[in-house]
Amino acid sequence: MIAQDQDLRDSGKAARTRLRLWKKLARSRDGAAAIEFAILSIPYFLIVFAIIETFVAFTAEQLITNAVNTLGRQLRTGEITYNLSRDSDKDRSEFRTAFCDEISILISCSAEEIATPSKLYIDARTFATFAAIPDYIPRMSADAHADLNPASFAFTPGGPTTINMLRAYYRWQVITDLIRPYITNIRPADGSMPSDFLIVATTAFQNENYP
After folding, report:
1. Is 69 domain-assigned?
2. Residue 166: inside a domain, yes or no?
């Protein structure tokens, strides 16, 4: 009988000890911050990367725009000419190289890219009037998010007093999935995940009557 009483007292003591431990564990805050951070870190970093990538993409857009304005001014003033038998003449490849030099702070062009465009497309042409200059983005289909159609692109800027257009297109790849549906404007026809933000910069001008 005495042994049974002792066993009951020991069992009750052990139960009370376990209960105190569970209560202590429930009140403990050790490691709570680490657990909360682990839960919130994924959406947090997705948002941070999305903000950074959006900023970089729009910075690239401004860089392309500045390059178009700079090279357009050089065409307008005769600092760069085409097919006029002058020292200032540049062919398509040389002009693309000059354009790449303007954007090299953020975007690099390989020799292959300069020779055969896959991301950077440049269209420089002369027109009879300003009204004849196209005001749309040429695409493969009528779909507003269809791929770019470069079939009509050329490098044939005119000489003194001619009306010209210089337009640059750049396929900027978006990496962060969170913002792809919102800033990509080229969507694959097969319905796969879009990845390209098409940067477009245009300038139209009449060349000065340079000698």
Report:
1. yes
2. yes
Number of structural domains the chain divides into: 1
Among 177, 161, 160, residue whose Cα is nearest residue 84: 160
**Residue span of the structural domain in which 167 resides:** 40-206
Least confidently predicted of 16-25, 108-117, 144-153: 16-25
Q: Structure pTM?
A: 0.79
Residue 133 inside a domain? The answer is yes
Task: Please write the tens of the pLDDT for every residue from 11-33.
Answer: 656 666 766 766 665 565 556 66
| Residue whose structure tokens are 């500045």 | 66
Residue 7, in any domain of the structure:
no
Residue 210 has φ and ψ, to the nearest 5°, of -75, 150
Cβ-based neighbour number of residue 52 at 10 Å = 11
Give Cα 169 distance to the centre of its chain. 12
